[in-house]
Amino acid sequence: MPTDGDVLLKLAGEIDDLGRRLGQVGAELRTFRSGQQPEQAAPAPMPQPMPQPGYGWQQPPVQQWHPPQQQWAPMPAPIPPVPRRSLAEKLGQEGAGSRLLAWVGGAVTLLGVVLFLVLAIQRGWLGPLPRVLVGAGLGVGMIGTGLWLHRNPAGRTGAFALAATGIAVLYLDAIAATTLYDFLPSVAGLAVGLVVAVGGLLLASRWDSALLATAVVIGCAVCAPMITPGFTPELVTFLLMVQLATIPLQLRKEWTSVAIAAGIPPVLASVISTAVAGLPGNWANTAAALGAGVAGVGVALIVTRRRPTDLAALSLLAIAVVPSLFAALLLPKAQAVPVAAGVGVVLLGVWAVSRWLPGHAGDVAGAAGLIAVLQATVVQFDGSARSAILLGEAVLLAVVALRTRRKVAMRGSLGFAVLGAVFALAGDLPPVLLLVFRSRPTGEIAGACLVAALLLVVSVTLPWVASRLGALRQPSANVVPWLAAGIAALYGAAGVVLCGSLLVQPGRSGFLLGHVLITMSWTVVALVLLIRGIGVVALRVIGLVLVGAAVVKLVLFDLSALDGMARVAAFLGAGLILLAAGTRYARLVSSR
After folding, report:
1. Which of 93, 106, 359, 570 has the fewest beta carbons under 10 Å from its own?
2. Cα dihedral 138, 144, 147, 152 in deg (nearest 10)
3. Structural contact between residues 530 and 586, judged by C-beta atoms closer than 8 angstroms
4. Rounded Cα–Cα distance for residues 361 and 307 (Å)
5. Residue-wise pLDDT tens digits, 141-191
6. Number of C-beta neighbours around residue 517 at 10 A
7. What tens digit of pLDDT does each residue of 466-511 get?
8. Which residue, 335, 414, 402, 320, is CA-closest to 368?
9. For residues 96 and 114, what is the distance between their CA atoms, to the nearest angstrom?
10. pTM of the predicted structure, to 2 decimals
11. 79, 190, 177: which is closest to 135 by C-alpha?
12. How far is CA 423 from CA 380, 392, 417, 461, in A?
């Protein structure tokens, strides 16, 4: 049995061992908190307790603490840009020569078919029906050959070229049977052409070849004017059939080349057809132009519904109004205004429901609609009514922009305001009206007063709305737009005061009274801006600029143009107001 002394010696050894361990752990913790890696030093040799008789105790193994190591993943290497190949490299690659020869051969064959039909008509070869049948047989044969070649991967380049040429030949044959020989009524010929075009584009979709689809569309569009007797409404309708045939393909494939190749020819053909005809009352060309516009808008909206960021569809939507607006330029006023206004109303209706349209399609339609409304306004009105209507539409668009938070409306407001101001300066409110007295009819002065009031309103409203929408920075950061708006507002205010004075007191006395009131009103407005802008830098700067403008007007204009009591009243009134303004402004500054 161990004695009490042995037990005490054992406890003392364990306590000493525990103290050393605690000291070691504390040192490692202090090293870890300081951010340094603890040194993995070999533990100090521990004294071995003396073996005691009859007691089998052994020292437990010492466990060393290791801090966790953070693993850093290596950054991926940047992907190098794909080098663009030059034209020489593209032509020099294997197989380029065969593709080039095949497509050039197809284009030459198609042109040869067209020339054969034209020459057969001129020389009287065969009859109308044999010509149509020969063309149809040639087209079907070329398509069949292309289908047979497509089974072998080595011959697919020639298959694409033969199929595209055969489809174009069939489409041109349908045009000839409808427009040249009258074998088919117009509706039946358009239906046959639509079926041929849809079949060819579906074949291109099945073969997954954007080149084949583009070749089909270009072949039909380029060769069609050679078959029809010039640029006629019938040609425009057949080109529209090609554009409509591309809708299923554009919904399934994002092939920009097909959309552009199908969208531009109807617009160009309609414009050229209208320019060549150019006769009032030619409703066939007008209807074709409207049809081209409606088809372009419809196809673009259908495609953007599926792909909101399709740049080709948005571009075609923007130019869809060109045929209709060009036709309106050549029509008489009684016909041009309904055409342009109708197009504008339709596009603005699309803009109004643009919350259900993804992407920017609604904004593009709204911009095109505003252009159509602008043309209708300019054509319909003249004189002071034109300037007043344009400025009123600018104010209305500014309010719409503020309510709907749409910057397209704000930009439209700016365009209408600038054009209305130009018309006002050129006719209704010229600078001569403010500088030189001339007897004018009362109605003309009243119209000028209305235009000046609208110019003042739009000059104040438009920059305020733009700043609320975040499209225009503060005057301290963007001086030029605010300065232009301020000059326009001063001009409009001067026109309102002078025309009002002439309406109240006609003659030279009213002219002099108006200028006295203009100078005093400028100083009053400057006083108000300085008082209200005691804590606003922009208002304070505008007030000081207005004070300078009033002084310059007093020295350069009032001193020489006014006479008698008008000159005295202008100087005394402006001077007293400026003295009062200075006194009041000094009190406000000292109180702050």
Report:
1. 93
2. -100
3. no
4. 10
5. 888 888 887 777 765 667 777 788 888 888 888 888 888 778 888 888 888
6. 19
7. 888 888 877 667 778 877 888 888 888 888 888 888 888 787 777 7
8. 320
9. 27
10. 0.68
11. 177
12. 14, 13, 10, 19
